[in-house]
Specification:
The strands form 2 sheets. The chain has an 8-stranded parallel barrel, surrounded by 8 helices. The protein has a two-stranded parallel ribbon with strand order 1-10. Strand 3, helix 3 and strand 4 form a beta-alpha-beta unit. Helix content is 46%, strand content 12%. It is globular and about 70 Å long. It folds into 2 domains: 275 residues, TIM Barrel (Alpha-Beta Barrel); 105 residues, no CATH class. The protein contains 16 helices and 10 strands. The protein is α/β, with parallel strands linked by helices. Bound molecules: 3-methyl-2-oxobutanoic acid and zinc ion (ZN). 3-methyl-2-oxobutanoic acid binds next to strand 6 and strand 7. Zinc ion (ZN) binds next to loops.
């Protein structure tokens, strides 16, 4: 069975959308979880964008070893230099170069002609390949690019040394049929280069990002770019969890595999939401609070008799906990440990003892400890910033 490479861009395309910015420590925390999830490529940032982005890209590149780490750059020397600096500590680096190819973008945004764009792309790829073992080229706005020119650029990029060619539906305009057809035509023109991996990157402006990504797989694409909870520019990118569950549940149709650990989908989704403070909509497929909730009497009756009547996947399979524990001052240590594990944190006894002490103090004032509170507490404990234990009180006395 063919394997689909999963390229996660939560820390880049996702992070650059309003409300989702993260600091370096938060990006590292999420990067560790995304690595555990089993992605093949993790895009850590766009280093030219800010010193903070460069620092976070370097931090992720220095630590993550379970997958490839990518950094984004426009086809411009300063961008490429910054991205290469970000990738310096990576064990498996990938330079991700992009430039728009549609006439609309060339004329109105970049104010350059097709020839100049072609030259910039091929020159930067050649330079990139001298300094990085893997180069991916993205033809921004590919789905609105004239086909002959797109094929010429793709061939030029491959001949200049690009290993992966990404053809984004940058503005979420394509339909599944059109998007698949674009890949079929490009693949046919790339006949002499079967080793080149084609990649899809879809935005959700018409709510079609996952459908378009699946159509691309049917057209032979073997890398999909996506984000946790589908976050990303405007309406977002293809949602990683929806895509993975579709490939799993409908394996009889798609016939491909991924390396993703399904049971880590829900904890990863919750970790992102807790770190950014942006809740997951309750009706979101796979990871929304209602995704496995049943209220109608007829449905409840069916579920009690046989869950397959109204559930196409067992909640536990994607890591959805069977029960929800409310954490407050009456909770015990095991409840805190279990909730932290749901959020993706494996804790030692000493860490739990310290988290518990801090949480009980906070719960006295705030009644309930939210997931966000708990993540902030575990971060403080791990950074050794927890205040000294109070001299008295049930927690300090080890009553619970
Ligand atoms: O949507 C897009 O075209 C992008 C590219 C930079 C890959 O995010
Ligand atoms: Zn994008």
């Amino acid at each position: 069975m063919d394997t689909i490479q999963i390229f996660d861009t939560t820390l880049r395309d996702g992070e650059q959308s309003p409300g989702f910015s993260m600091n370096c420590e938060e990006k590292l925390q999420l990067a560790r979880q995304i690595e555990q999830l089993g992605v093949d490529v993790l895009e850590a940032g766009f280093p030219i964008a800010s010193p903070g982005d460069l620092e976070a890209t370097r931090a992720v590149a220095a630590e993550i070893r379970g997958c490839r780490v990518a950094a984004l750059a426009r086809a411009r020397q300063e961008d490429v230099d910054a991205a290469l600096r970000g990738l310096e500590p990576a064990a498996q680096p990938r330079l991700h170069l992009f430039l728009a190819t549609s006439d609309l973008h060339l004329k109105h945004k970049l104010r350059i002609g097709r020839e100049e764009a072609f030259d910039r792309i091929t020159e930067m790829i050649r330079f990139g390949r001298k300094h990085c073992e893997e180069v991916e080229f993205s033809a921004e706005d590919a789905s609105r690019t004239e086909m002959d020119y797109l094929c010429r650029v793709v061939l030029g990029a491959v001949e200049a040394g690009a290993n992966v060619i990404n053809l984004p539906d940058t503005v979420g305009y394509s339909t599944p049929d059109e998007y698949a057809e674009m890949f079929r035509q490009v693949r046919a023109r790339l006949g002499a280069h079967p080793e080149v991996v084609l990649s899809a990157h879809c935005h959700d402006d018409l709510g079609l990002a996952v459908a378009n990504s699946l159509a691309a797989i049917e057209a032979g694409v073997r890398q999909i770019e996506c984000t946790i909870n589908g976050i990303g520019e405007r309406a977002g990118n293809a949602s990683l969890e929806e895509l993975i569950v579709a490939l799993h549940v409908r394996q009889n149709h798609y016939g491909v595999a991924t390396r993703i650990q399904l049971e880590k989908l829900y904890p990863t989704s919750r970790m992102l939401s807790s770190i950014t403070g942006v809740p997951v909509p309750p009706n979101k497929a796979v990871v929304g609070a209602n995704a496995f909730a049943h209220e109608a009497g007829i449905h409840q009756d069916g579920i009690l008799k046989n869950p397959l009547t109204y559930e196409i996947i067992v909640p536990e399979k994607v890591g959805v906990p069977a029960r929800r524990l409310v954490l407050g001052k009456h909770s015990g240590r095991n409840a805190f440990r279990a909730r932290l594990a749901d959020l993706g944190f494996e804790t030692t006894d000493a860490e739990i003892a310290e988290c518990y002490r801090l949480a009980i103090v906070q719960a006295d004032a705030e009644k309930e400890i939210t997931d966000r509170d708990l993540i902030s507490i575990i971060h403080r404990v791990r950074r050794g910033q927890a205040p000294a234990a109070a001299a008295s009180g049930p927690a300090a006395a080890g009553v619970r």
